[in-house]
Amino acid sequence: xxxxxxxxLLLLFPLAAPAADGAASRPPQAAIASANAQATDAGLExxxxxxxxxDAAVAVSATLGLVEPESSGLGGGGFFLLKRADxxxxxxxxxxxxxxxxxxxxxxxxxxxxxRDQTVNGPLAAAIPGLPAGLVHVAAKYGRLPLSKSLxxxxxxxxxxxxxxxxxxxxxxxxxxxxSKNAAAAKLFLPGGKVPAKGQRMRNPDYxxxxxxxxxxxxxxxxxxxxxxxLVDGVRDGGGNWVLKDLAQYAVVERAPISFxxxxxxxxxxxxxxxxxxxxxxxxxxxxxxxxxxxxxVGRVHLLTEAMRRAYRDRxxxxxxxxxxxxxxxxxxxxxxxxxLRASIHLQKATPSDxxxxxxxxxxxxxxxxFSIIDTEGNLAAVTQTVNLPYGNAFVVPGxxxxxxxxxxxxxxxxxxxxxxxxxxxxxxxxxPGKRPLSSMTPTLLLGADRTAVIGTxxxxxxxxxxxxxxxELMDGKGAQDAANLPRFHHQYLPDVLSAEPGAFTExxxxxxxxxxxxxxxxxxxxxxxxxxxxxxxxxxVEAGTDPRWKGVGKGGAVNQVFQ
Length: 564
Known about the structure:
The chain is an alpha+beta fold and 564 residues long. It has an 8-stranded mixed β-sheet with strand order 1-19-2-10-11-3-4-7. Strands 8-9-12-13-17-18 form a 6-stranded antiparallel β-sheet. It has a 3-stranded mixed β-sheet with strand order 14-15-16. The chain has helices spanning 2-5, 37-48, 53-67, 116-120, 131-142, 147-160, 166-172, 176-180, 183-189, 205-217, 219-223, 225-237, 244-248, 276-287, 297-318, 329-332, 335-343, 463-475, 480-485, 507-515, and strands at residues 6-8, 30-34, 77-83, 89-94, 162-163, 201-202, 253-255, 258-262, 265-269, 368-374, 380-386, 444-447, 451-456, 489-490, 498-500, 520-521, 531-536, 541-546, 555-559. The chain is globular and about 60 Å long. Helix content is 34%, strand content 15%. The longest helix has 22 residues, at 297-318. Residues 1-22 and 359-366 have low confidence and may be disordered.
């Protein structure tokens, strides 16, 4: 199965010559790992046509929005972590924004209780999409091809039809009834009132028309003019609160990534409004004070769990949209702060979460998507995008061809009340007009003397810990596919449970963890959909690893490439 997932597409171009010291000066091949073979093929097509990693990122992103409507799309948002061959790094924040009519308590009933249906279903759950602006921005500033060229594979698939697959079917099982209540969504995804069969060809000419408008008119093709009015009218007719000014004011934000060192490695990752980079920095700085390599397996899991617990506690208290709240990022990501956290860790006993100073306290779904790209110039792209829950808010504005998000649920609707991923928060992530909700999306780069990797995954609240475990695997010398295969475990402060995939722990390890005071939930269903590319300079090889948990759906591919 892994052999089917890692497909090399070779063109008749020479490989890059190795450097004099035996290490490759440039990657010998370009590579893409994404959650859907149709999207990987779109990106490989653009690389073969002379595009760079950022052109390919536009192609993969737009195609995933079509073929993985349960996970992302033009009605959602995303983060683009980019590193150019010249060494410059940027984080393009295309996260959704709350409408201007949003208020702090907009989802609370007369008794002060959250109305969960309003936060996840229908137009009132939708924040202003950011992905279209992200595509335009990345293509214009970092790509080398016109947007029309990079969007061409997605446009062609939308017009000719894409193939409905196992993941589309499985994820629809959680949302079919809600999708059926919206006529436009049902027409698009439930033809004849039925879930499409595996392999059924799904045509979406409306999606193609939106992409053509985006290619021709750029940012304003989506956020101003006829399409903007169509979106606002459709949302308001359905009970939502968008106005034209919401769309006209939307813009991506370029931010400096969070970067830090750990035992000879440099990790470049996502800043707020992602919580991932701050949490990773905290955890790695905590680990730096211990001889992790010399620990037993159970001792290492215990330490990682305690570090996770503290990082998620700080996520709940401090993190939000940096354009709206003051976030002490430098403090909570500093080695000195981590030293204080280490002082509270007992290496033989778990710390109950309710004993940590902080807040007063549903399973995740793989309803986001990630892809990783490296080209033969050495450009890197780590991109995670989402519509939040499976099939977003299950609402389609007629004639647009895409679902809207339900990212308003990623805000802290009420302090201490969990969202759909079981995450709690306080005022830093409270709802406010024009504010971006806090995210767990964690696109990340691993930079070492001999190895460079691009990694990320969907998985709701578990994204950060999956990326953490994948990074540790890569640092231990394992391959891209090894990192994607690795069994996972997770702790997020509240609920105070150490959850684990089947096979992550032996019965003896579970007993030892329980003896240390951990509440272990072993044998949960698998989670995540990790996508990794790895350049090994010493071996002069490039590897793409795609998660085996969705059999035959994801695809890693490599292509020989020459830039003129």
